[in-house]
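Long-time lurker, first post. I've been practising inverse folding by hand and with some scripts of my own, and I keep getting stuck on stretches where the structure tokens seem ambiguous. Below is the full token string for one chain I'm working on. Before anyone asks, I'm not after the true native sequence, just a reasonable design that respects the backbone. If someone could post their per-position residues I'd love to compare against what I wrote down in my notebook.
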């Protein structure tokens, strides 16, 4: 993973992530914090790489894309197909439709790029929940106004998603978002 990580950081720099403003500094700084958080939670290498690159296609909450979704092969060549698939899953998530039912075994995931819906298996649902927690907790830690505005809603979301979260992720949710 160290070579993949270094290649991913170089790729992100080439795409402009180090110059793109994001809460807490730059997008690259945020992506690196999310990756570190996932590493602290002992996430597997593919999920950590996905955390590092999670905003490449933009997200439902951060529309600035570094790459259009039709250039997925470029990212997959850098971080591998498993990690890239997680980046796409995260970036394509229609949060309004998906998050309320993500913890349900038959919960529908809606792709915001294509409009297509499918039911992901437990592995991808857990990865999406874990990556979402790492992302949102980074923002909540850095920005008291964000935490004040969104903290209770995020805690409610992660309480619903608790069966999908690792114990360290859930503990961090409770600690950072407790009112």
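-- Answer (accepted) --
I ran through it position by position. Result:
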């Amino acid at each position: 993973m160290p070579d993949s990580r270094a290649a991913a950081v170089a790729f992100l720099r080439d795409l402009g992530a180090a110059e793109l403003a994001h809460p807490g500094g730059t997008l690259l700084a945020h992506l690196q914090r999310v990756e570190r958080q996932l590493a602290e939670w002992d996430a597997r290498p593919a999920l950590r790489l996905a955390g590092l690159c999670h905003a490449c296609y933009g997200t439902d909450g951060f529309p600035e894309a570094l790459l259009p979704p039709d250039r997925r092969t470029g990212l997959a060549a850098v971080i591998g197909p498993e990690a890239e698939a997680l980046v796409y899953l995260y970036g394509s998530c229609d949060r309004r439709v998906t998050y309320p039912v993500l913890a349900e075994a038959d919960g529908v995931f809606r792709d915001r790029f294509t409009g297509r819906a499918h039911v992901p298996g437990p592995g991808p649902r857990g990865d999406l929940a874990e990556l979402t927690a790492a992302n949102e907790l980074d923002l909540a830690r850095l920005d008291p106004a964000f935490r004040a505005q969104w903290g209770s809603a995020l805690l409610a979301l992660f309480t619903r998603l608790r069966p999908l979260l690792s114990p360290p992720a859930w503990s961090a949710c409770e600690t950072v978002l407790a009112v």
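A couple of notes from the structure itself: Strands lie at 21-22, 25-26, 109-110, 117-118. The first strand starts at residue 21 and ends at 22. Happy to go over any region you disagree with.
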